[in-house]
Amino acid sequence: MDMNDKNFLAGQVMMVGFTGVDEISEDFISFIEEYKVGNVILFSENIYSKEQLKRLCGKIQEVVKKATGYPALISIDQEGGMVSRLSPDLPSAPGAMAIGRTGEPHYAYEAGLITAKELRMCGVNFDLAPSCDINNNKLNPVIGVRSYGDDAATVYAFAKKMASGLKDGGVIPCIKHFPGHGDTDSDSHLILPSISKSLEELEREEILPFARMIEDGIDCVMTSHIIFKALDKDYPCTMSKAVLTGLLREKLGFRGIIATDCLEMGAIKENYGSVEGGLKTLMAGADLLTVSHDYTVARDILDAVIENVDVDRLKASAKKIICLKEKYGIGSEADIEEEEISRFRTVFNELRFKCIDVRNKAEGKSLTVNDETIILGCPSYRVTLVSGKPLELDFAEYLGKKLNLPFIKVPLEPTKEECEEILSKLDKYLDVIMGSYNAHLFAAQADFVKALEEKVCGRNGVLTLAALRNPYDLELVSDRSNKVALYEYSVDMFDALASFLKGGENE
């Protein structure tokens, strides 16, 4: 390809998502061919089995190679835990906070290596993970269990190992969300967050894991759509030259690929427009612009880029992206036997059991189940795209049937009448297991949990509160109750909890 062809160069700096599973629409193929788009991003909506994913990635490579002469970066958000895009026939690693609580970073390496082998087998070569965000705000609605912990040292130690595992498995890791999304109480998928910390505070906390990963030679960093007032009062990091060029390139010395978070997200789209955001971020120093779902938005951005950005600027980023593809041998796949997939599942199941976090075991009150036990639990919810498909899974029903026990479903935000009705049905049960879902963010659910403890413990029963996502729910009950953090609303973690409850020991 002609390295002075603006269409080709612009296409290399775009990463675009689409709707489809078994087939790629003719419209999307025509878009790739016309604009020479070099990179694609996949979500769970594009995936239903490992064989289907492998076929889809093969087709993507065929179309992109024909259009551009180079293989495609095919990316995915496979963090593990609550942010898992893969289909059920491919085992998914536990999430970051669950692994972080083990205190053993080698588990993060193992999770990264197995994840990379699975991805590369299916043709995915670029993982938008791990998160280097420090979860230092309990009210954060979007990071939470996606972070390895609430301090810079822990986050760096585990993220480094996860990235090394991915790299050793042949997949490009991309750390995110620079310079840190942990200390927000709002979600950039929906609105534009801002952080008022001083530069000194940022350097001691948020920036530190990223700086150390850059020193270690990480190849790719993803930006955050957040205004850090100490860095740039006017623009979010994704669009800020002060952040991308001044801080990331010049001060921290990063020479790799700067990828953006999705330009369709509310923080950019609703405040600047995706097209203006795309232009601004490219001129600020980014290399790879992401449009996750609507390729017509990517087309509009590409039209603006081709018209307004000069060849030399595009060439600088396109060359880096092509070099990255060559470095990782992008375009090839790895063969893995079915027995290996089974082994991966066993490893992850064993790790999930280790990740069950018993915060306290109320004196004389067992964590096992009996004939006088009932299961209560909330559903999960999908606020943003980071949660993937809405889950049909229900904790109370699943665990109740798994353990052959009665169960009651509790709404995420139960009304006063619903609370009273549920509590009135518990009189004949001595032991209650309640699965909460971010109750610390839902006042009505938090009130129900507190009322539940008063009812159960008030008659000398046993309440076990299982936090099914963020562990901060456990602060809602006293030491009269058992407290267990699961970090993840999934069949795999529910199975691990069932095994734990049957044995009563965290082996």
Sheet with most strands: 6 strands, parallel
The amount of helix comes to 40-55%
The CATH class name of the largest domain reads Alpha Beta
Question: Runs with pLDDT <50, length 5+?
Answer: 383-390
User: What is the overall number of helices?
Assistant: 18
- What count of structural domains? 2
Shape: globular
- From the coordinates shown, what is the CATH architecture of the largest domain? Alpha-Beta Barrel
**Fraction in beta strands:** 5-15%
Strands ordered across the widest β-sheet: 5-4-3-2-1-11
In angstroms, what is the radius of gyration?
Answer: 23 Å
Describe this structure in words.
With 507 residues, this protein is an alpha/beta fold. The protein folds into two domains: 322 residues, TIM Barrel; 146 residues, Rossmann fold (3-Layer(aba) Sandwich), CATH 3.40.50.2300. A six-stranded parallel β-sheet has the order 5-4-3-2-1-11. Strands 12-17-16-15-13-14 form a six-stranded mixed β-sheet, sandwiched between helices. It has a three-stranded parallel β-sheet with strand order 6-8-10. Helix 2 runs parallel beside helix 3 and helix 14 packs across helix 18. The termini are far apart. About 2% of the residues have low confidence.
